Amino acid sequence: MPLVKLTPPPGVITEVTDYQAGMRYTSADKMRFRFGQPEKIGGWTQRDAFSSFTFQGINRNIFPHRDLDGKKFLFYGTSTHVYVESGNQIFDITPFRSDPATLTNPFTTGSAGSNEITVTHTNHGVAFTSPASRVVIQSIGTATVDGVTITAGEYLAAYVSANQYKITAVSGGTGSISGTASSGGVSGGGSVVVRYLTNNGPDDGLTGFGFGAGLWGASSWGTARSASGVVLSPRVWSMDAWGEDIVASVGGGEDTIYYFDVSAFNSSPSTFRGSTLAYYVTNTLSGDASQIPTKVGTVLVSTPDRHLCVFGVNPQGSTTFDRTTIRFASQESLTEWDAAITNTAGSQKLGTGTNIEAAKKGRGQIYVWTDVDLYGMQFVGPPFTFSFSLLGEASGTISKNSPAMIEGGSYWMGTNNFYAYDGSIQTLKCPVLNHVFDSFNQTQREKVFSAEILEFNEVWWFYPSQGATEVDRYVIYNYLDNTWSIGTLDRTAWHDAGTFALPVASNSNGKGFSHENGVNDGSSALAASLETGFFSGDENGDNIIMISRIIPDTTFSAGSSVNFSILSKRYPNDSTITKGPFAVTSSTNKLNLRSRGRSFQCKWESTAIDTSWRLGTWRAEGQADGTR
Question: Which DSSP string corresponds to 568-579?
Fold first, then answer.
């Protein structure tokens, strides 16, 4: 009998039944398609800086950077901290959100015999968070109060009221509380200087309930909602370079712009903290910070014209955060935000959508996504500075980090589809659409992020599946071959190679990784699998077919073995009969077997360490057989 090819076309398809898929790939994990053939993805190793370090909070931002001397950095923004990786070390540079404040006798002891300390500070601004946000006590006039000694240093600040909070020393920090109260309820401390770090943000998305949640008319007036479509986002930092320094924002209108002076960090890395842009302007530049917005969303620097822009902001003359207003400072300025005839500052309110979700730099313009549409923001110079145009309708992004920028164009994940823009909006034909969106946790949608791997012409989207609170799945799109793949992987942020030689990623356990590095999951095996649908032995599946021989074609770039199984059925709802798994090595010429049925399914899998493989043109020999 002549040999027939067991070589499906490239890409995974899940939109049809296994029988409709036939000789197509229907499932994959840790597999990509390149040059028309499937191969195992590259492995990863833990970055050296994380050998004895773990993030606090969940990291959802990675920003590679170089200073003017060419020194490399990785900035990370978690739900509770901002870190910088420099020279294989991680430093906590979480910014101060306040100026130093001098308090008088702010400490009050707890009950007699306890070491509880309550701090009184009118309108302190500490948020009610879990874990508690942090305060740095910079100096204390009288360190011992009622037998309790408090030292200067960093503390957790547990919210009590708008004017009070309780402190506990940060583990491993410089602050400490010792001794116990003699009488209890005694105040003291003398002159105390405190400064507050950025309040912690949520790790997870939350559904908003209570009064005012949901759409107009969804329930009766004056009643709290027990269900709504309102989703409160997790903390996702945005960062960009301003020269050799970094501007940043926590987003969502919670706070102002933050600034990280890289030269100051280089001078004192172990003690450096970022600050608000207003504090930096006032105290380092001796400038006027009165025009700097106080509530901002995403921050981005327009290049090459050098305008600092914020997407979602309190409008000029207002203190209320507007989710669809864009403001930009005057060219080359950190301080001039109010529009005037003598500068290039300005603002624009977008006409559609309820929230600016994302902003990315593209070819000749900035792309701005609302929750429903895509806008272009193009530098045109005075007197308007920027022009704004609607590029596409009903094509909003699902999250802040969903858009991927490839050679000036963009690819992104929407609320129920995938899109591309390169002069016009295109809805991508995605054969795994139901696999993604039919098992998707909408409450955690702000955790979706894209990962570019330009080496392989790929965009990955990582997303949380239904029932998962953290990202646990991915979908891969090869934009040159127009193929898709799927799989599972715990990652929370990503940045492609460029500043660093390899892609950098983080996971929900607080570790950082270098990807496309080796073939393993660190020191463990990286399991990979691939399977087809059920293909008929003849054109219509009329006959029982006996497959008696398989001729494999596999290339190993590491290791020498992959497991192969063939499954057979007589009817679509019949039970399967499995032959294998058979170990296929680099020296395997053929597999002799007896697999009988009307339809067949092929499966490949590797679970051994130091193994990487690529499928070629497999072939099979079979013939019509009896039914006994």
Answer: EESSTTSPPEEE
